[in-house]
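Hello, quick one for you while I still have it in my head. My current little project is about how a certain protein chain folds up. You're getting the sequence in one-letter code plus the fold written as tokens. Would you mind checking whether the tokens look sensible for this chain? Here's the protein in full, and shout if anything looks odd to you:
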Amino acid sequence: MSSNPPDIIRNFERVSAHIVAQAAQFQPAILADVAGRRGAMHGRIKALRPRMKLAGPAFTVEVRPGDNLMIHAAIAMARPGDVLVIDGKGDRGSALMGTIMMTACQKLGIAGVVMDGACRDSLEIDEMDYPVFCVGTNPNGPTKNIAGRIGHPVSVGDVTVRAGDFVIADGDGVVVVEREKIEALLPAAARKVSDEAARIAAIKEGDTAAKWLNSALRTAGVLKEGETL
């Protein structure tokens, strides 16, 4: 009989750096679309500043609300290029991270932070130009007392994230794609970018009609068979 896994899982397979580099060229919205409109976190998790972007393998952390002990442990363990993905239970009553911890993350080459919790020192983090995605800000500090888990699957922004999965984020929000699936989605993402560029060019030339619309309205029962807008 197998024993329960430890609270800290130290070794896990990450999406490779060359796949991260390729996938990072696409908008999160494109990847969410080609992934079946799955993997987008709830909109409560937003970029601290709209220009912020990140991409990399998830380094997952689970904490008790208002306590950041395990985040300190994660910072000590994460590899350059990792994205800290923190299940803070959506709590906004205190910040889980601020300038000191973000500075350490930046120095260590951690690609950014996504957390279902609050941060503080937002102006200083903005000046650092370090990518942080969170539920908001709160000047109140956390405790550092309570055990949690590292490297386990977490639920962040209503999306299940496993250690090593691909995470990408911009001003629209955060998208997660399973490590095993991201490479296979890249050709579809490239085609979608090309198709959308062609459609936008056609609209600018005056072709504004959505050619699928009448059929979709008939299927939905809004228009009768043979009827058009």
